[in-house]
Design a protein that fits this description.
The model has no long low-confidence stretch (mean pLDDT 86). The longest helix is centred in the C-terminal third of the chain and has 16 residues. Helix 3 crosses helix 4 and helix 4 packs antiparallel against helix 5. This protein has a three-stranded parallel sheet with strand order 1-2-3, with no helix packed on it. The protein has 133 residues and is mostly helical. The radius of gyration is 18 Å and the shape is globular. It folds into two domains: 45 residues, no CATH class; 67 residues, no CATH class. The chain contains five helices and three strands; from the N terminus they run E-H-E-E-H-H-H-H. It is 47% helix and 11% strand.
């Protein structure tokens, strides 16, 4: 087997869905699925490499209030339809993934769905991905 220079790595506790099948179909991007005890033992998908492993780190959660978390996320759930309309209107057929992602986030910031600081992260991520290509 040739060495892998770049790949998509995901974790999953569900059977492969549409997004995972799309990842597996990308040419020149091997899909590696890291599975654990919750992943179905019959998980399989042509073009994907599956490996089972136990936890290798221990997460220490910061103190938080679940109800405060819920309250802060509630507007997103109530506005999901509007958010999807904004995203759908921003995406352009034939545009690159990076151009569409930037356009989507610009519109989400403009509509107040996400904070302006997200654009810094989006731009940095797109720059990193471009450098890897």
């Amino acid at each position: 087997m040739p060495p892998i220079n770049r790949c998509i790595v995901i974790t999953s506790i569900y059977a492969p869905g549409e997004a995972v099948r799309c990842f597996a179909a990308l040419p020149d991007w091997p899909l590696v699925v890291v599975a654990d005890r919750k992943t179905p033992r019959d998980w399989q998908l042509a073009g994907a490499r599956l490996g089972f492993t136990g936890p290798t780190v221990r997460q220490e959660r910061n103190g938080h209030d679940c109800m405060d978390d819920f309250r802060s996320e509630l507007p997103l759930f109530l506005e999901a339809e509007n958010m999807m309309a904004v995203i759908g209107a921003a995406v352009r057929a034939g545009a690159s993934f990076g151009d569409n992602l930037h356009r989507v986030y610009t519109r989400l910031v403009g509509k107040g769905f996400v904070g302006a600081e997200e654009m810094t992260l989006v731009d940095a991520w797109l720059e990193d991905v471009t450098a890897l290509s």
